[in-house]
């Protein structure tokens, strides 16, 4: 394969996973219960009654999975630590067996020539903390900082960069506002303190990581927002949605302030959750990278529901994933240009920390190959426009437990038979492997 993408010579190729989606072994090794364990036990909460109780059994099969990564030639593996595997109740005593597991995984990755890029929180809050209020409580942010320090003390000698949070927007909206993800609360706009407390947790954890000489990133789901028409009403609705989805979790980090949420009837204190000094801590200099999780744009029209200042409109005339999401690779280029123009010198280097698609259960996944090719084209155009893009982590290495959709959606480069746990690389695995090799050869020849 010829590398047609004009990406920087030092560009890093990766793949991503998350602990609850692949590890399994929820009752082993001293792990405590998480909000996802409890949510999966609710009748009707997850499609087909599925759970992550076994998932991909990565907890036992990680050496096989590292070999799959070695076969791809990955530079980076983005994964997450399960907080309840490290601290079963989210505070206090540390579970040595849990840290031992991540120790072995990190050493195995390094032996394979792969740099670990761990995420500290990918939605699996210890249930004990949720019982005390979860992310609606300010105290959870301080418990997260303690957990970050424990993980960094054990692994920081071999892991140079850390992602604090994954997709705080999605976790707040799906988990606390709409109730379709764990912990399953339906609070609508009353959930906004969960946004601030997650960002405060980032700031507190970032201070712990920086004090140990480690690099700090955060990853969020971002979307280019398009008005459904040029009408003033649609444009105002699009601005309101952009403030909630994108700016609520990026402006505080890079500008030190929250966006205007007056369209939602919400003040700058986010229902009283913001205290003096919080925003300075969240925006503390030194964010070493912004993780961008991109899946699709969002088209917004004037509201039809009096409870919200926007309505989502369909994006027609484009392919759709098995999930039903529109495939718009150019949206990634559009999003990165928006970030550059909005934040300018404050924008740190970009790593695409998630980008991928669900397809039908087939090994000949040419749809996924086309998806990846289109998004890498878009990323290369962003690089040509002067945006500092450092890497791309496709979602996902393995077919896995896809949250409320259970095992009905497959995002992996590697097919997993969930009955036998047999791993089988798909056509996209070979394509991605050959692309990485071609890029590496091209860089070596320069």
From TrEMBL:
Active-site residues, Swiss-Prot/TrEMBL: 167, 354
A GO MF term: beta-glucosidase activity
Gene3D superfamilies, sorted: Glycosidases
Enzyme class name: hydrolase
Residues annotated as binding substrate: 21, 122, 166, 295, 395, 402-403
Keyword Hydrolase belongs to the record: yes
Keyword S-adenosyl-L-methionine: no
Reaction(s) catalysed (UniProt annotation): Hydrolysis of terminal, non-reducing beta-D-glucosyl residues with release of beta-D-glucose
UniProt record, GO biological process: cellulose catabolic process
Cellular compartments per GO CC: cytosol
Entry keywords, A to Z: Carbohydrate metabolism, Cellulose degradation, Glycosidase, Hydrolase, Polysaccharide degradation
InterPro entries in alphabetical order: GH, GH_1_N_CS, Glyco_hydro_1, Glyco_hydro_1_beta-glucosidase
UniProt EC number: 3.2.1.21
Family note: Belongs to the glycosyl hydrolase 1 family.
Designated name of the protein: Beta-glucosidase
Organism: Kitasatospora griseola (Streptomyces griseolosporeus)
